[in-house]
Amino acid sequence: MPRETLPDQTQDAEAKALAARRRADLELAAPAPSRGVGLSGKLLMLTAIFVMVAEILIFLPSVATYRISWLDDRLASARTAALVLEAAPTGMVPEALMRELLNSAGAQAVALKTGTTRRLLAVSEQPPEVDVTVDMRERTLMGSIGDAFDTLFARDGRILRVMGTAPRAGDFVEIVLDETPLRRAMLRFSKTIILLSLLISCITGALVYLTLHLMFVRPMARLTSTMIAFRENPEDLSRVIVPSGRKDEVGVAEYELQTMQQSLHDTLAQRSRLAALGLAVSKINHDLRNLLASAQLFSDRLADVPDPTVQRFAPKMIQALDRAIAFCQSTLSYGRAHEAPPQRAAVRLAALADEVRDTMGLGFEARIAFINGVPEELVVDADPDHLFRVLLNIGRNAQQALEARAPNDPVRDQVRVGARREGTVVVIEVSDTGPGIPDRARAHLFEAFQGSTRPGGTGLGLAIASELVRAHGGTIALADGTLGATFQITIPDRPIDLAAIRKSQRRRA
Fold first, then answer.
1. pTM of the model
2. Which of 357, 359, 382, 475 is least crowded, fewest Cβ atoms below 10 Å from its Cβ?
3. How does residue 345 score in pLDDT terms, banded at 50, 70 and 90?
4. 234: exposed, middle or buried (C-beta count within 10 Å: 0-12, 13-18, 19+)?
């Protein structure tokens, strides 16, 4: 009789291969970007730039407004002088009074235009030649700023002709004055406004910088340092970030980073557990194979014993040994690769359920009843070994759950297998009358090392069953609202390849 044997490959070699692949992935990963100017430095530079922009925006209109105010004051004095000069009889204004009026306006000449008449009210001994004419009645912001800069960079001694609104019924009043006092006053004012605005801007910029640094830069630096520390040793749970409790976007980022790091830590811990389990299994692989080989020799000798009882149980013992070898193989292969593709055939499900009952040791005298409710004529299109393992894994879980409340009673403690055909799909139900599945285990019921509900359980049984069912294109799920636990399995028939059948028929013809 052929025997299945365990392969010589070990999980130790597989773990080494996995570590080599991880090292290769790290080497192929994109290199870490070189550190440039940090956020603090960028924030400081941006703050300085914004302060300079604010300084310019403050300085330009301030200087232009100062120039306009200075000239308006001179025009106001000129209007007063014009009223005095106009009220006096012609030639009756003393020269000393005229000079005093011109000095109060800071002008060298004062003229008044009324209608078509232009009267020179006062003038110095030698009227100067006008260099620039300024009309204060028509002015814009940009024009005023341009005129202010023109004055700041003008030469000393330039003569201005300034026109403004006239008193009473006049058209306009004009004065002629030296621009040098205006230019010097504007330079003094510019120095003052620059120093004052610099002081205000520096204080404001410092407050903005400190606020942004405390609110954003430091939390970002904390996030960055936590990610770097976690990357160096993701298996160290102490390197997972602890959220600060903020309610804004930074707090959300901290919480999501913590969730991601914990999930990654749990995944790595699970992989490490798988690697440790594989290493432990590989260590016993050689000795277990020798023990199974000895058991096979004994089973071969039992086959020659003429005792009817021995002849009855010897084939089952041989089959159990073969399946034990296959189960060892599946345990080794679970962490290394997927299960082999199913070799599907027509299987009588009732007979397969009886084999599961015998393997579980739930005979007629057992304290836990095994009820086979599968119709004798029901045939399922599946791999017999795969389907046997699925039913055995689920049945074992049910048996262990019932044994936990010993002493057992077959009337109360039962494992039941039922099935029915729905078109091209066979629906199998494995149920028990135990305590059921707790809510905390339902979320990860079919994940390796996650779905166990009893102390010491590995959680591999349902994970293997789920993988085998999915390999058949079927589904497995825990039914809700049932007594105990009920697992529902669907196994669809293989689709019929009509083209292949017709081709085969043509060959036969």
1. 0.45
2. 475
3. very high
4. middle
